[in-house]
Design goal:
74% helix, Globin-like, globular, single chain
């Protein structure tokens, strides 16, 4: 997970760990998260929603199956459609990030942390490279928020 955050968010492992150790409210109010979210090319993300939607439609159903069978997550989405809309819709609004955390709070911390590299990796074959990197960065940013919340809510889960 740290390698994924370091690679996709252009953070050192130490910086990734420092952000992961923050309380959720501190992270949400931090200049580091604001800078990270502000650096996303939301125009590119919005323009490429059809591409991302196709990638998610293809790769999320097997990912959801993996969550259920390997990680014993009982409640997974019925369809991948909502995920594409979340990425752009949630990124710039802290209220929405808080709501995203609320929607995912039932996922056990170990399962959440194990799933992050696999989820971000859904975009590994996207071209051009700039588009792949921007989608990985956007999804990793959302996952960073979820990981911080999981660590805060389930500190001894590992």
């Amino acid at each position: 997970m740290l390698e994924t955050f370091s690679r996709c968010l252009n953070l050192s492992p130490e910086a990734s760990e420092a952000l992961l150790s923050l309380p959720l409210t501190t992270l949400l109010d931090s200049p580091e998260l604001s800078q990270l979210l502000g650096s996303l090319d939301t125009n590119l993300l919005k323009e490429s929603l059809p591409t991302a939607g196709a990638v998610l439609a293809q790769h999320l159903p097997p990912f959801y199956d993996w969550l259920q069978t390997e990680l014993s997550i009982k409640k997974v989405p019925d369809s991948p459609d909502h995920t594409t809309k979340w990425v752009v819709g949630f990124l710039r609004n802290q209220e929405s990030l808080t709501r995203l955390v609320e929607l995912h709070k039932s996922i056990p911390r170990p399962a959440l942390e194990r799933s992050i590299p696999r989820l971000v990796g859904i975009f590994k074959d996207v071209t051009p490279l700039e588009l792949k990197q921007e989608w990985e960065k956007a999804v990793a940013a959302l996952c960073l928020v979820l990981a911080v919340a999981a660590r805060e809510n389930q500190p001894s889960a590992l």
